[in-house]
Design goal:
UDP-N-acetylmuramoyl-L-alanine:D-glutamate ligase, about 40% helix, alpha/beta, 2 domains, Rossmann fold, seven-stranded parallel sheet, elongated
Length: about 500
Amino acid sequence: MKYILTNSQIRDTDESAIKEYGIPSVVLMENAARSSAEFIVDILSKKFDYNADILILCGSGNNGGDGFAVARQMQTHFNVRIVMIGNQENMSPETGTNFHAALKLGIPCIHLTDSEEIPNTDIYADCIIDAMIGVGGSENIRGIAGEILKIIKNINALKIAVDAPSGLNTDSGAASSDCFKADYTVTMFAIKRGMLLKSGPDYCGKVFTAYLGAPDFIVRNNADIFSLEDADIKKIIPERQRVSSKFDYGKVVVIAGSKKYPGAAALCANAAITSGAGLVHLYTTVVHSSLMPEVIPHIMSATKDGSISDRGLNIILKDAERADTVVIGPGLGTNPETLSCVRKVLEKVSENTTVIVDADGLKTLDDKCIMSKNVILTPHTGELARITGIPRKEIEDDSARLALDWAERLNCIILLKHVPVFISDGEISYWNTNGNPGMATGGMGDVLAGIIAGLSACGAEPLHAAAAAAYIHGKAGDLYAEKYSQLSLTASRLSNCLEEVTAKLL
């Protein structure tokens, strides 16, 4: 499990480690530097087959202290020199200690006090390491640091950020146009929120987390945003018992499809049966030829436009009452009679049943709906905009907070399809960061809804089922793109990768 922290949470974590658990700040800095240097040396040893020239840019804050200590750790491996900005008088004791140690060890250090000195300073190197500002900086970067960044962005060198790239807001993900564009970032304690939002991924490159010698629970105590890893999936999905039957792994009822969109229903139902559900029943008006034979179809009365009519509502309700999980919405269409059926199903389904509301099913909801924690909504930003009345652009700019806030307000779980994918129950959140642009194609959401249903039916808790489904879904998309290409990726081809992905995870 990865933890994702805000700037305030990282400060609380640091303070907790020092004050509550007695880990001296100088020890944390030394451990951070040693761990960072290990990552950096490993990176450089693979990039250069000679004694590379390394320039470390250091500020006078604690990020600069990390940089001075990294310089000391690396001096036996490479030609290391330092360019420093800021006032020595403002250094913390830890930063000052590492600054003076670097000087006493003879590491070349130039102290820039004025922008006019920059043109006469050699800031070219095989690798440039940024330790000027770190976490807590903003996109509004000025002064000497800003001038240095303007020059650096045009230098062709390997670039590594210590803690965070200068010019990046590590809360919001907003970045200066001159932000340090790192190939790699070695951050402290945990990934910062802004590294995954907006411009953050573009400027951080590949992110590593340094080990500071503080127990994992200290970070966990301050976190409310998490990101799953491979090992977490096995913990979320209950192990299948040797003596069991299909009735032990849940019944899914899928209410989906229409004459116009039969494929959506098939994609959803097929994903549910291949994601662990014991039984899957599909209620629809037209069966697509790709529907797997293991899915049990029920052909319903249709409206004039071929969508589900209310004449079969009692049949659907009777079966939904006996289901462990209900999926409603993929490909249903917008016929008022059909949407009326959706509302009635949502009103009648027991709170003991997990309900996934997707696609056209979301059209029945508004900002006044009060649901329950067994309900999972799976909107994209446009659909959440319609439900909440908030402009889509505003939702896209502040997706993480709004997914959390509206999950709390509507008393449900929201899986917001964005980059990253945000899953929240109004208290804690999971961010899913895998997947790729090839997944931006029709039917992907139908498959995702089916995976959630399958995992839920076989015993995963609703929030965990949604988070694990997003992870598996994204991983399947990445597997296909790696084998073939993003260009040819389709929802059905992603579904075909599910068995290979789950085989590796479980």
